[in-house]
Amino acid sequence: MSTPIVLASSGAEFTPPGAELFDFPPLFAGGPEWLTKPVVLALLGSLITIAFAWSAFAKPKLVPRGMQNIGEVGYVFVRDQVARPFLGKDAERWMPLLLSMFMLIWFWNIFAVIPVIQFPVASHIAFPAVLALSVYILKIYLGMKHQGPVKYFTNLIPPGLPKPIYVLLVPIEYLSTFVLAPFTHAVRLFANMFAGHIILAFFSLVGYWFLIENPSWLGAPVGVLGVVMTILMTAFEMFIQFLQAFLFTMLAAMYIGSGLHADH
Amino acid sequence: MSVVAQSAIAAVEGNVGAIGYGLAAIGPGVGVGIIFGQGVNAIARQPELTGVIRQNMMLGFVLTEALALIGLVAPFIYG
Fold first, then answer.
1. Where are the domains of chain B?
2. How far, in Å, CA of A236 to CA of A180, rounded?
3. Helices (DSSP H) in A82-219: which residue ranges?
4. Domain spanning B15-78: which superfamily?
5. Nearest CA in chain A to B57
6. Any A CB within 8 A of B55 CB
7. Does A125 touch chain B (CB under 8 A)?
8. ipTM score above 0.85
9. Does pLDDT of B79 surpass 80?
10. Does the beta-carbon distance from B66 to A184 stay under 8 Å?
11. Interface of A with B in 49-88 (CB under 8 A)
12. pLDDT tens-digit series, residues B16-30
């Protein structure tokens, strides 16, 4: 059996995929170093979001047809599940930001299971970090504007507790609001997409290795298991992709709401 | 005997970060289980409040998951 050199490069031993899945060279030789596959996909995702919103909402009709139907399903979902519970009567004002954020992240995530593309943009932490940072800056700006530059920071601390409690409460409250909240906001999306991409790569590599690259009677059941798991995990990943886009938008709405009004 | 012990020690390979993440996942694992268990329980008791309960379930889920996420990045920070 003659296997090509590239396939045999890992020797006779199965090597699971690792972090090297996420390293990309520049897209074309001699091109700028930052122009890699994830950057192009990020731009593609934002273009698709713009095209989607344009085709759905540019010329709205009283009786929706075609894309406007799909767009309105998405709009109503984000408004009822994300915006209204956290923003109340301000929901409509923040819908453009929340809907486009939801759509953008969902398109970015869906790239992970589209054949040929197969890369979740958010598995490079820079992309979710920028989104989370902009929400963080927006939150602090809104808090200072609507509650007052000093009042915003004092409103975070609930009044009327015994004095010694404040020694514990004040640092924890500030740490969780100003350090951990934006940090986990970004890392949650990143970690889910990163882990999901590795899981899919691992199971499909198991199937490929045991059935095509290095087939044997003993290894065949393992390979079949790998293929079956790849299909199942792809379905699961699609659910996770939607859930993470939803959670990111939900937390963004929550942070914006916490800037607009003091916690009760 | 010491040769056997040495070879046994030498046979253990890998990253301590993996163990660290395993430990960090225990607490959030229990917490997420409690949240969704109680959430399903609450929906079964009050099906008409499903929307509100699911909202709070998701909120509790993301806050609990934060601990597991910190555990995930800790090996990268200290590694």
1. 15-78
2. 28
3. 84-87, 91-110, 126-147, 151-155, 163-175, 181-208
4. F1F0 ATP synthase subunit C (1.20.20.10)
5. A247
6. yes
7. no
8. no
9. no
10. yes
11. 81, 85
12. 888 888 898 999 999
